[in-house]
Amino acid sequence: MPSIRLLPHLILAALLFALPSVAEAHVLVGEGGGFLHGFEHPLSGLDHMLAMFCVGLWGAQMGGRSVWSLPIAFPLIMVAGGMMGIAGIPLPAVESGIALSIIVLGAAIACLWRPPEWLALVVIGVFAIFHGYAHGAELPNAADPADYAFGFVVATGLIHLAGIAVGLGFQRLHGGQLARALGGLIGLGGVYFLVA
């Protein structure tokens, strides 16, 4: 496993690799689009938004390195799932996996579950595959995959930041009870997505 000091450099390299080249730089291509369409995609589905928000909220609730390690790992792993979706590699029960991510992450927040960081990373990593797969499988024919992926990674990061901000803010109010209540409500929302 690489040294923790190398992690920022690896993240920067991954982000630079995902950037479109100058010759291919475009915002929208036809109806599908590139960066903007990818950016809009995580914002267009409440199920995706809730799960991604929970990753930031849970990381803030856990504290320490988890405040940044969970929200950074999720979109990076999500890209791998996206590549699977683009390639058409079968992944069963994608929508159920997304709904379960909301239930599990909401319950983790509601129950104030603080597992070891590696276990939290495994949990969010499994769910990131499902979320990324959905994004990749829904890639419009007109979209440039690199632009699209970069767009949904940026939007995902912003949703994580919102979850972190709310989590850190709620930690100070009533001893974190508001964050736990919010996690419970989000988990119930996941039940809706599972049965709907």
Textual characterization of the structure:
The protein has helices at 7-18, 35-44, 46-62, 66-87, 94-110, 117-137, 145-171, 177-195. The protein has 196 residues and is an all-alpha fold. Helix 2 (35-44) crosses helix 7 (145-171), helix 3 (46-62) runs antiparallel to helix 4 (66-87) and helix 4 packs parallel to helix 6 (117-137). The model is unreliable at 6-31 (pLDDT under 50).
Which keywords apply here?
membrane; 8 helices
Number of strands: 0
Order of helices and strands: HHHHHHHH
What gyration radius follows from the Cα positions, in whole Å?
17 Å
Beta-strand residue fraction: under 5%
Query: What ranges have pLDDT less than 50 throughout 5 or more consecutive residues?
Result: 6-31
What count of helical segments does DSSP give?
8
Give me the secondary-structure category: mainly alpha
Signal peptide: 1-25
Protein name: Urease accessory protein
Organism: Rhizobium wuzhouense
Pfam families: HupE_UreJ
Layout of SSEs?
Blueprint: H1 7-18, H2 35-44, H3 46-62, H4 66-87, H5 94-110, H6 117-137, H7 145-171, H8 177-195
Helix pairs in contact: 2-7, 3-4, 3-5, 3-7, 3-8, 4-6, 4-7, 5-6, 5-8
